[in-house]
Specification:
single chain; 270 residues; alpha+beta; five-stranded mixed β-sheet; 8 helices; 35% helix
Length: 270
């Protein structure tokens, strides 16, 4: 099945952003992992949401206009993000299911479209930086899926926003730092949901500075679950982390809890 690739201006536009952080990727290759993980100092805040929308539209051949209109009337984060998470939250642009339908028009099954979208996103990241995918063939409909509660929340947001690009209020792991994915889910606020690999991957694509060296906080994709052993049991969750000089995509047990990992989540406006 034919898949969409990066837009024609992709290489010239986006490699420049990765080149700006590439000295950090080499300089810190052998740094010892610190005992207290956090976001890299280079990643202070999300890029302006309009810039995120425009770059995603350019990179992934998406229509930006609906998202740009919605960006002018975003609700205040403090009106629906829990106070304890507010310092870690920001607005991010991610592909919507409309984008998946555009990329894979012959795939009628939404689950298949999602799995194919994750594969495409990972290939796109690999265009601009060293990237290893250790999940590989497990990203298939029978062994990899978006959680139902996350899918329902995203569908409600898409009814409000429409368009190829969805704007979400998210935190990239600090709010659940050190917790397993399973424990993080138990601690979710009432309007909080795990973000899947497609959304997390698009954030990494748009913010290469958020993963620059070993020891920085890595990201569990708490909105996905996978059957890594292909036994019909979805007991693992995928994650993105930085190892040596590359970003990797892999999966681990839902009960794994490490100090330098945190579940990525988004909050539904109340």
């Amino acid at each position: 099945m034919q898949e969409m690739g990066p837009g024609p201006l992709y290489t010239r536009f986006f490699i420049k952003r990765v080149e700006r952080v590439s000295p950090m990727l080499t300089q810190h290759t052998r740094v010892v992992t610190p005992t207290v993980s956090a976001y890299p100092p280079e990643f202070r805040d999300p890029r302006p949401i309009e810039d995120q929308i425009r770059s995603l539209s350019l990179i992934l051949r998406l229509v930006p206009y609906q998202a740009l209109r919605y960006a002018k009337r975003l609700p205040s984060l403090d009106s629906f993000v829990p106070k304890t998470a507010l310092s870690w939250a920001g607005w991010f642009a991610v592909p919507s299911t409309f984008a998946l339908a555009k990329w894979f028009p012959k795939a009628a099954d939404p689950a298949m479209r999602y799995a194919m979208g994750v594969i495409l996103m990972n290939k796109t990241i690999a265009h601009v930086r060293r990237f290893f995918d250790y999940v590989g063939g497990s990203v298939a409909v029978n062994h990899f899926r978006l959680r139902e509660d996350t899918a329902d929340a995203l569908a409600k947001l898409e009814k409000q926003q429409a368009g190829d690009i969805l704007l979400i209020a998210a935190q990239l792991g600090m709010y659940h730092k050190g917790r397993s994915v399973r424990q993080s889910r138990l601690n979710f606020a009432g309007n909080e949901f795990g973000l899947g690999s497609l959304g997390v991957g698009s954030i990494i694509l748009n913010h290469p500075e958020c993963m620059t060296r070993p020891g920085d906080l890595d990201m569990d994709c708490a909105g996905d679950e996978c059957d890594r052993n292909e036994e019909g049991q979805f007991l693992h969750a995928p994650f993105f982390d930085f190892r040596e000089s590359h970003v990797q995509f892999s999966s681990e047990d839902l009960d794994r809890a490490l100090e330098d990992y945190g579940s990525v989540t988004f909050f539904f406006p109340c």
